[in-house]
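DM from R.C. (forwarded with permission)

"hey, sorry to bug you on a friday — could you get me a structure for this? deadline for the figure draft is monday and I only need the backbone to look sensible"
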Amino acid sequence: MSATAAARQILIGLHELMATRLSAQDKLDRTVEVVGEALDSEVCSIYLLRGGMLELSATRGLNQSAVHVTRLAVGEGLTGTLVANGATLNLAQAKAHPDFQYHPETGEDKFSSFAGVPIVYRERAVGALNVQHVDPRRYEDVEIEALQTTAMVLSELIVNAGLIDERSADEATREQSGPAQMTGLTLVAGLAAGSAVFHQPRVTIDRVVAEDTEYERQRVYRAFERMREQIDQMAQQAEFGAGGETDEVLKAYKAFAYDEGWSRRINEAIDTGLTAEAAIERVQQRTRMRMREIDDPLLADRMHDLEDLSNRLLRIVSGQMGTAATSGLKNDTILIARNLGPAELLEYDRRRLKGVLLEEGSLTSHVVIVARAMGIPVLGRVRGLRGVIGDGDHVLLDSDAGVAHVRAQNSILEAFEARFAKSKERRAAYAELRDVEPFTRCGTRIQVMMNAGLRDDLTTLSMVGADGIGLFRTEFQFLVSATLPQREKQTRFYRDVLDAAGDKPVVFRTVDIGGDKAVPYLSNDSSAADENPAMGWRALRLALEREGLFKAQARALIEAAGGRTLRVMFPMISEPWEFDAAREVFEEQQEFLRSRKRIMLPERIEYGAMLEVPALVEVLDVLIPKVSFLSVGTNDLTQFLFAADRANPKLAARYDWLSPAILRFLKRIVDATTGHQVTLGLCGEMGGRRLEALALLGLGYRRLSITPVSVGPIKELIRQIDLAEISAFMNQLVSQAPGDPRTAIAQWAQERGIEVD
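My reply, with the result:
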């Protein structure tokens, strides 16, 4: 009998069995007989998790007196091992396995070969289905697949028969999981705690046995067609077709989506009598088995792609397409996802969303930019999230340290809560500085402004007591939109920003999209060859080419600022002519609007430039007379200076804001602007860190634009320092260029009782 025929025979037998009024124990006893007969197995046994122990609950071939007597801890023996790992065991010589344990009451000493598969309920192993033979042999793949198919049906049978209810299964398997610690890359620093919620929850398969095989097959065909349409649509989006890794991801996705072998295996599973959902899950289990055996990281990543597509196919066929945002968050939440887009993140309730864990993610991704603006800690590149974290598990996210604690022990929980409480106390102390002006000890007023880009940021301005918005990222409106935002919509948005700011200044940075901030509605042939998108066709370079987009934004900003001062800043300027070209666009739009009599124009327009391309420093003498202000963008500037991609964790040590090269470069900018009628500021994460901010003040920077959460800490720092002292120290430090300026600055601060952590 073939494996397909054997599996179908088992399914038919179990389907009939589930409809009977036999007792729970009788159903288990009959199950091992059905499976044993179909697979011609000398032994077939079922172990179920009860009271935290795996109990032999039914057997064909072992001593009946051992039923409900033989009990194993999770992780004990072969059965306990496969349940603990959630993985299949297939052994020709069971006694040679290091985890083998002999239980004499079972009479299993004469059996050599062993195969076992976990019985899984809601992603957690709640038991095991084992077969044994006297002769030593490895079981064929088709036999293992038949066992796994049976185990899927058993999970439904066990719950429906009341052999293990949902609550006890959940509690028992959580206990077996125990505490876990996961590491990753800090994308947005911070502390957070909450219940794990998956952005795309696993599909619950309520029906395993098919009533109409052909109907199930047609459901799968339709789901494949829809999934392939989605993959083809992805090919049209700007995130793909941009060269490099994105092309490779798309090729892998398309290869799997159109793979006839994958489709055939699902159809073969349906032939055994499974529903479409169960068949997809059955094939997916086989994929997971193969993933555990793969040592090649590249091949393992491709298998992860197949699992991702399997989840997509399962959601389509089941009609369960919604994300967790659709149903809403009930408690404080740590969101779990493979990856997220900025629009998806913004769908969540900010009052409940406390942190994010991503299997992927990079420092420059769109979702990280938005999360940083929202003040939500994010830990990325965390491997194996679904294998360790269950829905509802309590998670402590310490993104500062790059770790997440799952089901933490009391000692870890207490230490975390102490840190969290101290953090809250500090935030409360910073909040008291909201209306306090940041004067140094020597009486110098420092401007502390904040970065923004979201509508919700507008309420934060008054809450933190910033002097204004030194960087308003207008691209957020473009990144979260499926289509190019209409000019009228942009105008309303910019006017709302200015209204909310009141008499405080707002500096609008013109749109910085393209390159690593691609949007789906702009096809950009020039960016196809960008191997380094951060240095590619983006920001002002793209805007000057896309005249329609840039003119629409210019007109929207001018109209929104009617009767007020408009402060506009151009990003990614490499040479003065680019500034001239951008300014000309605004001047032309202002003249056009002036010709339309009834439109109120700004009282004046102040033009500024972002200094993030190192080449611009060489021509500052040409640029300075043209601008009202300069703002140093330390994020891009630093990676350009070091030729070190800030998204690459291997280069993290090369990306130090307090290196001699960076400090000297920043001092050059201060010296070049001294004596000119230009306001010099700095926007970027560097200004929001206390130690780095201390160094910047010593170098001569008097205007910082930082994240809202950093405003309070930086205000407190400013009030502790004397500019003459720190300036003298930094001038000496820059001239001597020690190997470790960070330690030297920290020691200087410690000697004067200035907290810089």
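R.C.: lifesaver. The first strand starts at residue 43 and ends at 50.
me: no worries. Residues 541 and 572 are 8 Å apart (CA to CA).
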